[in-house]
Amino acid sequence: MSKVIAVANQKGGVGKTTSAVNIAAWLGAKGKRTLLVDIDPQGNSTSGVGLDRRSLKTTTYDILINGAKGADAVVKTAFEKLSILPSSADLAAAEIELADIPAREAVLKNALAPLRAEYDFILIDCPPSLGLITTNALNAADSVLIPVQCEYYALEGLSQLMNSVQAVKRRYNERLELEGVLLTMYDGRLNLTQQVVTEIKKYFPRKVFSTVIPRTVRLSEAPSFGQPILYYDRSNKGSQAYGALVDEILKKNR
Ligand SMILES: Nc1ncnc2c1ncn2[C@@H]1O[C@H](COP(=O)(O)OP(=O)(O)OP(=O)(O)O)[C@@H](O)[C@H]1O
């Protein structure tokens, strides 16, 4: 049975996609059968692992809205042990269309259920909102990983996110737990960064990963080559950080 991890934060641009893609790629490289699920209409995970979004036949939109089976949408990537359920731009409409679907909060969970035996890890890249799509991800997940950007307003919105997690836990998915809080775009030279880190650790005692992801331009370049950082520039500090993070996740999930 796989472990399903939702990568969520309703705040935009905090490193959800970068983290989902690179954690998934490292899990695959470390021998774990891994499925990345892109439910963000922007589709940056999909293009980030080298898929041309225009050539896709079945996407997570079809899974959420048209009753497509998970297996029909799975695409093998060029990377070791890494497959993806890609997204398409029409997913933007799914947030509204889902409202009319029976058991609308459990569509993704039901679609992933038959795939869980085939993968060791399933990573879900969530959109930057707390709507029905993110609710579907939290309902389908065993745990949630929250990337937090090391910046002044980092804590803003986190209580709202934790309220959503608690609500899903209460109503649909009592096993849902917090996998951890990941500090992204870390720049240790800045005083502000240190202050933010202290604040976040106070807010989430013992839940902040000891690995932090440094700010590095290579991490922002890699997606334009359709490659996770580990294949684009393996020895880069961002690549090594995601590798160390995956070791931390594997240790915790042994
Ligand atoms: N550690 C990092 N160093 C430098 N740039 C980064 C780093 N992490 C992410 N970025 C860049 O910051 C931007 C936002 O990151 P990303 O797309 O991963 O965030 P997101 O939370 O998924 O965004 P959205 O909410 O829009 O889906 C991207 O341009 C990405 O390349």
TrEMBL record:
CDD domains to which the protein is assigned, alphabetical: ParAB_family
AAA domain ranges (all copies): 2-177
Transmembrane regions listed in the UniProt entry: none
Top-level taxon: Bacteria
Signal peptide: none
InterPro entries given in the database record: AAA_dom, DNA_Partitioning_ATPase, P-loop_NTPase
Pfam families in the record: AAA_31 (PF13614)
Species, as recorded: Anaeromassilibacillus senegalensis
Name of the featured protein: ParA family protein
